[in-house]
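Dear support,

I submitted the protein below through the web form. The confirmation email said the job was done, but the results page showed an empty box. After a refresh the structure appeared. I'm attaching both so you can tell me whether what I see now is the final result or a partial one.
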Amino acid sequence: MTSTATIKAFPLPPAFTAADLYSIDEHADDGAGAACSKEQVPRVNRTTRAASQSSAYPAYPGQQSAPSRFQNGPPEAFHAALKRPQKLAGTSSANNNNNQHNNNNNNRTNVNNGGRGGGGAAAARTGNSSPTNSVFRPPPPLAQEGITGPRKRAASVGNRMHLSTLETSSWVRESVYLSSPIRSAFKHGPDRRPDELFGLLPGEVLDLVLRSLKGLHLDKNSDSCATCMMRDLCSAALCSRRWYKHARVVLYEDIQLVGSDSAAHKKRFKQNQGNRMALLRRTLRSNPDIAALVRSLKVPHPEPPPNWSASKGMLWLEQYEDRVAALVMACPKLERLSGPTPSYDHSFKKIFHALSTRTALKDMTWILEPPAPNAPQGQRMDNSPSKQRGQSGGPAMLEPAQGDAFLSSHRNWTSLTKLSILCQPGATLAPHRLLSKTLTYLPSLQHLHLCNLPPNAFNDNNLLSLPPLKSLILSRIVGITSSGLTSFATRANTSRLERLELRHTPLTSLPALARIFSHLPSLRVFALAQSFPPVMPETDSFALWMMPYLASASIVKLHWDITSHPATTNSADDILARSIEAGGFPALTILRTPNDPEARFQALCRPVHHICLPTDRFYRHNTLIGGSIPASGSFSAPSSPVSPIHKSATTMSLPATIYAPSSSGTDLHKARLAAQARLEAAHDVPRFTFSLTDDDSQVAQTIGVAGFLGTLGSKITYHLLPDEGATDEQGGLVDVLDLVADGGEALAGGREGCTGRWNQKEGEVADKKEKEKWWHTERGRWRRLEA
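What the results page shows now:
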């Protein structure tokens, strides 16, 4: 294949030589002077002159209409003339000084002779002469632009910029200066407001500066917090009206109220919590323009009043939720509400009604509870005529009115892109048609996260009716089967799926997993965590000779955690390791396999010096302190009560104990210690051996070097760190409960917060107020979590 390139040639500016750059007398042309002496020539407009002239050098108005003497001559003479420009302004300071000195002498002579000529004296005093007796001499072109004299750096006044300090090439066209906004700022002289030049910056630059400031405060490794960020943005908004316009957007589009209220607010408003929310609600209600800017809102976690006990009831929590609902109603374009997520027990609450009216909402998390005791109860699944096999003992079905109320909450959410649903023990969304009908009201849905839904709420029918998604997370969903997952992967609307996580979902068939990999072309992240390995049917055992059996050309990150074999490698682990080694995952760069007792996966990754963190050996877990580290994977989590399955199975044939809550996965802290032990053991086994011989070609010494664990040249990273917001104990994957957690806001457990004094000066201060200038109530450093 031959590549073709096109090169465009542009004319260069006229080249000058030392012989061509000589001074030309501006008044040498008598014809031009005579023409100007008859009638005063008005000043030519700069824009018109720059557009009409074809040359890069300006000419006098009297010479523009004169016929060119090179019109009929050879081209060489015309180009030679272009190399001889008229006198450039500022090229000769000596001539300018001499001309100015001669003019002063002439004026002095006219003044002395003014007693004998009244007309001449009057003309000399006023500085004007008769049109018939004076000759109009326009100033040099660049002098009209504000540059006089030679090009040299002028004295700087403060921090202001002057156009005379800008050095430009002589061949640059005048239109470049005419289009410059900085040039227009100097046309009235250097005396102006200090911030006038700053106001010439585009609004995009100011937005970039303010968002960078916000990012510095909220960075993961920053010592600051959201309170310090809002304080600096408020200070920026008070600088000028231009700052206020852009700082107001950055401040109010993402509001973060973190931690408890200050003692001054509690004393002033005489309530324990909700003071900042009340002030914010008053601001938003009085300024509709500001209220329309709010896109994301973070409310603080509720705090019980002093001397509160469970016997006094939860009235304070209901009042807190009502304040949050009133604040939500003041934000007409709210897209996301972060902070504590109240539980939904199918009874009316103001907070859920307020969220249902936000048409721009893009993120919603449901924590479903069993129906309230005062609400009408539905029929039990045991008495329902639609009872299915293996679903006995399930939660109660909802009444039609309760299902309609849940369904009506989604009617206005046409912009919703993320939906997370968690069913607490005893809660449900039965019948299963309720969830499928709910998703039809969400045309913009892209990310779905379902956790602990019972079989009567989500099964294979719901899985096959899902809309086109970009990410799907199924955690402890036991109502689906391997055949349902296979049929889901082969549907046309799954071609955009980029992330699929199956956590303790009964994936029993290894061929089903192979079909999932082969039918999802956009899959980039895949996670499988369960207590038993998927098995290979006996009729398909011959296919294992064809490697790679599991293959995906798009997967970049793979999480694989089978907890049933803590000491040995199971058959599914062996097939996956052989598939990776055979090149079945060419795009794979991150591999997380916490349960890897024989280092099958660790040996496929690039060699590293260490895996565990510096604090892992001193981390106290239960009653064990990092000391002796076994080389095997005995640190893995205990196996699930489900016994290992040695042949093909379906959901209906699994034991009843599979519906019991299972462990989330292998502890990553223990997995790092075990991986580090295997790595250190490999250092004692050399990979290369050198034999030293003497003069008689006898081996005198043998040296073994380079003991490591891994594959040289591999691009796969052995990753044993949790995702952002997850914990080591939960296996490193983010669940719904992690999304509604405190996110670093709570100060319990010895966690240090921010008091704002990270910006305080050290040592002596000149003002007493400097000590408390930056101080605020200690608050945690909250960060938003993403699944």
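Response: this is the final, complete result; the empty box was a page-load delay. The mean pLDDT is 74.
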